[in-house]
């Protein structure tokens, strides 16, 4: 670890450590536990985050950045809209698998209860992610690869349906259930449901 970090890098490191702690539950995130995980004294932590609420906001922003990064990576690596959606689904699966604290954070009372600002911020993050997926679906429809008789928004919800239930089982099983192979199989069924068949193309 570098002895000196710029402020942005240190804040991101703190958020990463807090996200790792969240795998044990939001209650595991305390100013003391986060400072110990980062290898810094509590006074140094307070220079970046004043309290636990600010840390939770920092973790939420970290998750948002990871989602955006995954979407960009899928676009760069995919060679067609359906392939991009596959990359997006698997990137999402890997994200949840490698960071089991994400669902604990997003759906915890600490993240949602009594704080309308934080609730709106989380909803905005999820809306932004769906919008990015919708734009990919629209491209697929325009190229004649994805059925045009289904709304792009519905296609995206079907896509999320390939990922979320297996990831939820991973979450409630405390990691005993590996969701990734199931998500791969789910995506094959998704493709069969939304793709334009060769005989239907004009």
Overall description:
- The chain has one domain (52-200): Tetracycline Repressor, domain 2, CATH 1.10.357.
- Helices cover 72% and strands 0% of the residues.
- The protein has helices at residues 7-22, 31-38, 42-46, 52-77, 81-98, 101-106, 109-112, 116-142, 152-172, 180-194.
- The longest helix has 27 residues, at 116-142.
- It is elongated and about 65 Å long.
CATH architecture: Orthogonal Bundle
Q: What are the segments in which pLDDT stays under 50 over at least 5 consecutive residues?
A: none
The total of helices stands at 10
Give the terminus-to-terminus CA distance: 58 Å
CATH class: Mainly Alpha
**Looking at the structure, what is the overall shape?**
elongated
Fraction in beta strands: under 5%
User: How is the biggest beta sheet arranged?
Assistant: none
CATH superfamily: Tetracycline Repressor, domain 2
The helical percent reads over 70%
| Tally of domains | 1
Q: How many strand segments?
A: 0
User: Which structural class do you get from the secondary structure elements?
Assistant: mainly alpha
Mean pLDDT across the residues is 89
Taking Cα atoms only, what radius of gyration do you get, to the nearest Å?
19 Å
Order of helices and strands: HHHHHHHHHH
Quaternary structure classification: single chain
* Annotated CATH topology: Tetracycline Repressor, domain 2
């Amino acid at each position: 670890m570098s002895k000196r970090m710029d402020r942005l890098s240190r804040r991101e490191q703190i958020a990463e450590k807090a996200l790792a702690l969240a795998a044990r539950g939001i209650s595991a995130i305390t100013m003391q536990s986060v400072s110990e995980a980062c290898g810094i004294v509590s006074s140094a932590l307070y220079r970046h985050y004043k309290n636990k609420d600010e840390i939770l906001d920092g973790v939420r922003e970290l998750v948002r950045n990871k989602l955006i990064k995954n979407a960009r990576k899928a676009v760069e690596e995919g060679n067609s809209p359906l392939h991009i959606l596959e990359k997006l689904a698997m990137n999402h699966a890997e994200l949840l698998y490698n960071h089991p604290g994400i669902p604990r954070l997003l759906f915890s009372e600490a993240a949602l209860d009594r704080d309308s600002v934080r609730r709106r911020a989380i909803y905005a993050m999820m809306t932004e992610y769906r919008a990015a997926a919708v734009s990919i679906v629209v491209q697929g429809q325009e190229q004649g690869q994805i059925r045009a008789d289904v709304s792009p928004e519905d296609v995206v919800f079907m896509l999320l349906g390939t990922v979320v239930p297996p990831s939820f089982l991973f979450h409630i099983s405390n990691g005993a259930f590996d969701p990734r192979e199931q998500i791969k199989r789910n995506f094959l069924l998704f493709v069969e449901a939304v793709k334009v068949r060769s005989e239907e193309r004009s």
